[in-house]
């Protein structure tokens, strides 16, 4: 279901600055809403409209944001820092390797952090691209290890987790993509990589070695870009949700070669 929202702000109306104010507000709302379902958003908008109607005024950005924030429990201080480091790590490495734009970061979901990133199509499907992807996926774990000296289970635990996606890429590099350490020309797909890795310890060792190399590489990038990494993590901890413009401002301020 699509809802049309008219938003007023205390600043100059969007009509006086075509696109600028409205686009900025919508980007901020979209970033703040990362992790919500369509049903969640529909309910929040409905409740915000009702609140505005009762106040005999137009719905505002603050009404929507308050509805989103009220939908989520507060994140404990230490956990908020862990999520900020984790997501900042992904973003810094993604940018350093020029994989594509970082559209937004969010640690305000109550269920872990979210990052929304894009990818340059011209760079995909090469061996370097897959290795860069592995490095980016392992960067959250590398960030936790670098800053907190121990890692959480946040990188794993589900089929769409960082470790699951990285393991699948490592498996495909060794089995289906033509970049295997042994027999690179053989195409050997399987619907259940976990089962194959369990019964083929040598293959498991090769895949794991790829993940270890990616983890080390991510840590090296974060150490080289430590000021940028720290600045982004601090900004994300404070704001809890950052759109593309806010993230890019910090990332480009400390640009270095990867």
TrEMBL record:
<dbReference type="GO" id="GO:0004222">
    <property type="term" value="F:metalloendopeptidase activity"/>
</dbReference>
<protein>
    <submittedName>
        <fullName>ATP-dependent Zn protease</fullName>
    </submittedName>
</protein>
<keyword id="KW-0645">Protease</keyword>
<feature type="domain" description="AAA ATPase AAA+ lid">
    <location>
        <begin position="26"/>
        <end position="66"/>
    </location>
</feature>
<dbReference type="GO" id="GO:0005524">
    <property type="term" value="F:ATP binding"/>
</dbReference>
<keyword id="KW-0378">Hydrolase</keyword>
<dbReference type="Pfam" id="PF01434">
    <property type="entry name" value="Peptidase_M41"/>
</dbReference>
<dbReference type="GO" id="GO:0030163">
    <property type="term" value="P:protein catabolic process"/>
</dbReference>
<dbReference type="InterPro" id="IPR000642">
    <property type="entry name" value="Peptidase_M41"/>
</dbReference>
<dbReference type="GO" id="GO:0006508">
    <property type="term" value="P:proteolysis"/>
</dbReference>
<dbReference type="GO" id="GO:0004176">
    <property type="term" value="F:ATP-dependent peptidase activity"/>
</dbReference>
<dbReference type="GO" id="GO:0046872">
    <property type="term" value="F:metal ion binding"/>
</dbReference>
<dbReference type="InterPro" id="IPR037219">
    <property type="entry name" value="Peptidase_M41-like"/>
</dbReference>
<dbReference type="InterPro" id="IPR041569">
    <property type="entry name" value="AAA_lid_3"/>
</dbReference>
<keyword id="KW-0479">Metal-binding</keyword>
<dbReference type="GO" id="GO:0005886">
    <property type="term" value="C:plasma membrane"/>
</dbReference>
<feature type="domain" description="Peptidase M41">
    <location>
        <begin position="83"/>
        <end position="248"/>
    </location>
</feature>
<keyword id="KW-0862">Zinc</keyword>
<dbReference type="Pfam" id="PF17862">
    <property type="entry name" value="AAA_lid_3"/>
</dbReference>
